[in-house]
Specification:
258 residues; mainly beta; five-stranded antiparallel β-sheet
Length: 258
């Protein structure tokens, strides 16, 4: 506490030294983080964190999040987001840019709706046009794959996998980056010779190239499947925000070589 030379503690004029402090600060958005909960490559959830405990007025399951709009075409799905003691809101969203987990979804608030207020005595409402820069929290995932016969011997031995966003470029020299392969019919493992991640490997920054052992007989018939384990102890595949490629288990590769 502040004191004068005589060790007296100051207080407001006419007060007792026990004056109440009034909270007149408006709540703000701290973060807005995306997620792709069904790993289909499109953002479907956003978590908004507030600067303090707030009351979110809604009460209807037939509308979105009152007063809040998101960037990148994301729209709050109809649900009752009402809360009286929350420091965050998890919003289900639709309409976000498809097949792109790199997007961010900055929220913007329209005041005078009474949608988001703090729980202070003055019930401070969030300011009009309040916003925060969104954060990419969505992991890259597999969108599609295509096979090729890189050495023209009549056997498909190279598969290029398209991801939902650009990933860290590890080039064509990366070996066994937590990928495994197998024959779907025999279930026998197929040796993954090399794995190339990024532009220098697959022609684009959102590609991963799997080169399989051409001499492995299980590689020449039936459906080939691959798995990826981001916690497998090797070099993981990440996006620019350090989100790790979503795990895959026995995902079929497309063999479109004639």
């Amino acid at each position: 506490k502040w004191k004068d030379g005589a060790n007296n503690v100051p207080h407001a004029t006419g007060g007792t030294g026990n004056e109440a402090v009034t909270d007149s600060a408006k709540p703000v958005f701290k973060t807005s983080t995306t997620a792709d909960t069904n790993t289909n490559g499109t953002v479907d959830q956003i978590t908004i964190v507030y600067s303090e405990t707030v009351s979110v007025a809604d009460g209807s399951a037939a509308d979105g999040l009152p007063g809040v709009a998101f960037a990148n075409s994301c729209v709050a799905a109809n649900a009752d987001y009402a809360s009286t003691t929350g420091t965050y809101t998890i919003v289900t969203v639709t309409g976000c840019t498809a097949s792109d987990t790199s997007i961010t979804a900055s929220p913007t608030y329209t005041a005078a709706t009474g949608g988001i207020i703090d729980i202070a005595a003055g019930l401070n409402e969030m300011a009009d046009t309040e916003t925060v820069t969104g954060t990419d929290g969505s992991a890259p995932t597999i969108l599609s794959s295509t096979g090729s016969d890189s050495d023209a011997d009549g056997k498909t031995n190279t598969y290029v996998i398209t991801l939902s966003e650009n990933v860290t470029d590890r080039g064509a020299a990366a070996v066994n980056v937590n990928f495994t392969a197998r024959n779907a019919v025999s279930t026998n493992a197929i040796t993954v010779s090399t794995v190339g991640i990024g532009a220098t490997a697959g022609g684009a920054a959102n590609k991963a190239t799997l080169n399989l052992d051409d001499a492995d007989t299980d590689n020449h018939t039936g459906v080939i499947q691959f798995s990826y384990n981001g916690a497998g102890g090797g070099v993981t595949v990440t996006d620019a925000a350090a989100n790790v490629l979503a795990n895959q288990t026995n995902t079929a590769l497309t063999d479109d070589v004639k």
